[in-house]
Design brief:
The complex is a heterodimer of chains A (390) and B (168). Chain A has 390 residues and is an alpha+beta fold. Chain A has 17 helices and eight strands. Chain A is 51% helix and 12% strand. Chain A is globular and about 85 Å long. Chain B is of the alpha/beta class and 168 residues long. Chain B is built from three helices and nine strands, in the order αββαββββαβββ. The chains are: A alpha+beta (390), B alpha/beta (168).
C-alpha cells in the first residue's frame, strides 16, 4: 500500500472471534494495525437500572445474565455484597457449596474460553472437547438447581435448596475424570508448534502496564502480578482450601493461556477439597428477616405464614449504607457496589465488570500487531459481552 | 495497612482535604474536598506506603431521590494496592453541572470508567482525552442512570406511525 494510505476495517459486531457483539474499528497500514477503537454497548440492557426497581432476591436472576458462561459466580458476588450490607454470614455448609458452584462455573467458563480461543486461531478440535466437558458440569448444576445456563441457585442468606447425593456423586465423577480431559487439551495445544508460534510474544503487557490499565484476573496474573481475590481477601471459606495462584512472567498471549489452564487444575483441587470436607448443617442463615420459614412451620403458625408472605413478596430490607464486595470472576474482579437506603430494593447498584476495563486496553495493546494477531489477543483476554455491556 | 493508619497517613499529608470518613462494611471510605482532589489522588497512587496503583472502578450516585442535602451527585473511586491488597474508596461530592478533574493521567483504567459515568450520569470530566458515550449510542438524549430518567425510557408510550416510523 502506498505510503501514508491507511485502510479502515470494521471488525465485528458479527465477526465470530468477537465473542458476541464487540465492534473494533481498525486502521491498517497494510496488515499492521495503526489504531484500534473498540465500540461496545450493543448488548446493553440496563441491568443496573432495572435492579434499582426490583427487590433484593429478584435481582439475582439479573446477575445470571451478566457473564452467562459463569452464572453462579455472578450470583456469588451479588449475594455476598447484599449479605455484607445486611451484616449476616451464611452457614459453613452453604459457603462450601457456593465455592463448589463457583469453581464449577469457572471451569465451565474456561472450557468455553479454551475452545473458542483455539477455534479463532484455527485449532478446531478444542471447541468440541470444551463443550463436551462443559456438558458434564451443566448436568451437575442442573441436578442442584434445575437449570443449566442460568441456575440462580444462590440466594441472599444461603442457597435455594440443599444439594442431593446425586450432586455429590456427579461432582466426584467429574473431579476424577476431568484431569484426563485437561491433559488432552495440553497435548493438543501447549507444546503444539503452530499454537506456540501464533501466541508467543504477541499482545505482551508488562506488569506495570497491566496494573495501570486496570487488568484483573487471569490477564493480570499472566503479566506476573499475583493478585487473586480468593487469596488477597479470602471470602466464603476460601482460606480453608489449599491452592496455588499461577502467574506468568512475560504477559503475552501464551502466558495468559498457561495461567488459565493451570487455574483449571487449581479449581479442580478446590472442588475436590470442598466436596470431601463438606460440613453438615443448614444451608440458609437463621435470620427471620431474610430466610423463609419452612413449610411445616407455616402450616401450624400464623406468624410464620405472614413472615413467609412478607419475605416472598418483598424480600429483605437493607440498612442505610454502602458496600463494595468483589469476587474472583472467571474474567477478573467482578465487583458489586450497592447503596442501600432502607428499602426492599437497592438505591443504586453498580457492577464492576472486569472485561469492560480489559476491552478499554485493546486500543493500547493492538497497535503494532498484525491483523491476524488481533484475533488471538482479543481471544486471550477472554471477554463476554453480556458482562461488558450489562 | 489497617484502615486507621491509611486514614492517618492521608490526613497527615492533607489535613484539610479529608472532609469525612466512614467505615463501609470493613472498607475505608474517605470523602475529599473538591479543591485538593487531584493532588490527593496523585498522592494515593505515588506514595510508597499507600501505593494504590490499581484503579478498580469509578461510579456515581445520584442522590436526588433521597432526602439528602445537596450536592446532587457523589463520584466514588474504588482502588486497591498491589503490595498490601488494601482497598480504599474515595468519594467526591459533585454539584450538578460541575466538572470533575480527570484521573486518566494517573490511572489509564479511568478512561472508560469515566466515559461510563458521563454516559450514565452526565457528569463531565475536565481534561479527559476522549469523552464520548460508551454504552448508549452517540445521539442518545438524557442520562439513563439519573433518578429522574424513567425506567421504560422517555418515548415508551408515545404513539408512532408504522408507515413512516415517525413519532406523532
Amino acid at each position: 500500500m502506498a505510503e501514508g494510505k491507511l485502510m479502515t476495517l470494521n471488525m465485528g459486531p458479527h465477526h465470530p472471534s468477537t465473542h458476541g457483539v464487540l465492534r473494533i474499528v481498525l486502521e491498517l497500514d497494510g496488515e499492521i494495525i495503526v489504531k484500534a477503537t473498540p465500540h461496545v454497548g450493543q448488548l446493553h440492557r440496563g441491568i443496573e437500572k432495572i435492579a434499582e426497581n426490583m427487590n433484593y432476591q429478584q435481582v439475582i436472576t439479573l446477575t445470571d445474565r451478566l457473564d452467562y458462561t459463569a452464572a453462579s459466580l455472578n450470583n456469588f458476588g451479588y449475594c455476598m455484597a447484599v449479605e455484607k450490607l445486611l451484616g449476616i454470614e451464611v452457614p459453613k455448609r452453604a459457603q462450601y457449596i457456593r465455592v463448589i458452584m463457583g469453581e464449577l462455573s469457572r471451569l465451565a467458563a474456561h472450557q468455553i474460553w479454551v475452545g473458542t480461543h483455539a477455534l479463532d486461531i484455527g485449532a478446531m478440535t478444542l471447541v468440541f472437547y470444551g463443550f463436551r466437558d462443559r456438558e458434564m458440569i451443566y448436568d451437575i448444576i442442573e441436578e442442584a438447581s434445575g437449570y443449566r445456563l442460568t441456575p440462580t441457585f444462590l440466594r441472599v442468606g444461603g442457597l435455594a435448596n440443599d444439594i442431593t447425593p446425586d450432586f455429590i456423586k456427579g461432582v466426584r465423577e467429574f473431579v476424577k475424570w476431568f484431569p484426563t480431559a485437561l491433559a488432552g487439551y495440553h497435548t493438543l495445544l501447549t507444546d503444539n508448534i503452530i499454537w506456540r508460534k501464533r501466541t508467543m510474544d504477541i499482545g505482551t503487557v508488562s506488569a506495570e502496564d497491566a496494573v495501570n490499565f486496570g487488568f484483573t484476573g487471569p490477564s493480570l496474573r499472566g503479566s506476573g502480578v499475583p493478585y487473586d481475590i480468593r487469596k488477597a481477601k479470602p471470602h466464603s471459606s476460601y482460606e480453608d482450601f489449599d491452592f496455588q495462584v499461577p502467574v506468568g512472567d512475560k504477559g503475552d498471549v501464551y502466558d495468559r493461556y498457561l495461567v488459565r489452564m493451570e487455574e483449571m487444575t487449581q479449581s479442580l483441587k478446590i472442588i475436590d477439597q470442598a466436596i470431601e470436607n463438606l460440613p453438615e448443617g443448614p444451608v440458609n442463615v437463621d435470620n427471620p428477616w431474610v430466610t423463609n420459614p419452612s413449610l411445616d412451620v407455616v402450616m401450624d403458625d400464623i406468624s410464620a405464614l405472614i413472615r413467609r408472605f412478607k419475605i416472598q413478596s418483598e424480600g429483605p430490607h437493607d440498612p442505610v449504607g454502602e458496600v463494595y464486595q468483589s469476587v474472583e470472576g472467571s474474567k477478573g474482579e467482578l465487583g458489586f457496589y450497592i447503596v442501600g437506603d432502607g428499602n426492599e430494593n437497592p438505591y443504586r447498584m453498580k457492577i464492576r465488570s472486569p472485561a469492560f476495563i480489559l476491552i478499554s486496553a485493546l486500543s493500547k495493546i493492538l497497535p503494532g500487531h498484525m491483523f491476524s494477531d488481533a484475533i488471538a489477543i482479543v481471544g486471550s483476554i477472554d471477554i463476554v459481552l453480556g458482562e461488558v455491556d450489562r | 495497612m489497617e484502615n486507621v493508619k491509611i486514614l492517618e497517613r492521608i490526613k497527615a499529608k492533607f489535613p484539610e482535604a479529608v472532609v469525612a470518613d466512614q467505615d463501609c462494611c470493613g472498607d475505608l471510605q474517605v470523602t475529599v474536598s473538591n479543591d485538593a482532589f487531584i493532588e490527593v489522588m496523585q498522592f494515593l497512587h505515588d506514595d510508597e506506603q499507600l501505593g494504590f496503583d490499581l484503579l478498580i472502578d469509578i461510579l456515581a450516585i445520584d442522590n436526588s431521590a433521597r432526602r439528602r442535602k445537596p450536592p446532587r451527585f457523589e463520584v466514588v473511586y474504588v482502588m486497591i494496592s498491589m503490595d498490601s491488597f488494601d482497598r480504599l474508596l474515595v468519594k467526591l461530592p459533585v454539584v450538578e453541572g460541575e466538572d470533575v478533574p480527570t484521573v486518566t493521567g494517573i490511572w489509564q483504567a479511568a478512561n472508560w470508567a469515566e466515559r461510563e459515568v458521563f454516559d450514565m450520569m452526565g457528569i463531565r470530566f475536565a481534561g479527559h482525552p476522549d469523552l464520548r458515550r460508551v454504552l448508549m449510542w452517540d445521539d442518545f438524549e438524557g442520562y439513563p442512570q439519573r433518578k429522574d430518567f424513567p425506567l421504560e425510557g422517555k418515548d415508551f408510550d408515545e404513539k408512532w406511525d408504522p408507515d413512516t416510523i415517525e413519532v406523532l
